[in-house]
Amino acid sequence: MNAEQEQEKDRLLIFSSILEEINDCVMFTNFEGKFQFINQFCSKKLAYSRSEMQEKDLGNFQYPREAFAIGPLRFFEDTKGVWTWVLPMKNKCGMKVRPSLKSTTVVKDHWVIGRIIILREIL
Hints:
Elements: H1 3-21, E1 25-30, E2 35-38, H2 40-46, H3 50-53, H4 72-77, E3 82-86, E4 89-90, E5 96-97, E6 99-108, E7 111-121
Antiparallel strand pairs: 1-2, 1-7, 3-6, 4-5, 6-7
């Protein structure tokens, strides 16, 4: 392995450690809005295993009867790229949690390939 590959490997190890250790829910969706990555904290906070959340839409975890609905089309229709609001969600037990949400698109070669979503508990 050459030095450049070794540096990239170290950088990815640090990056993945940061994502797993942060005390906020960190998620990544594909361009259709389906979860591809959920960090450990998010899995614990919402009481769903990663496999239970994998390939599901954020709207599946939204608290019932909330005025603002999120569905897969919201990801296609998005034009501003950055979302910020409070999103009432339900954990696995059906209890309501109200995290603030910050989200931005991930763009590669001028194409949206996904979305990073950070949920932070409101104190």
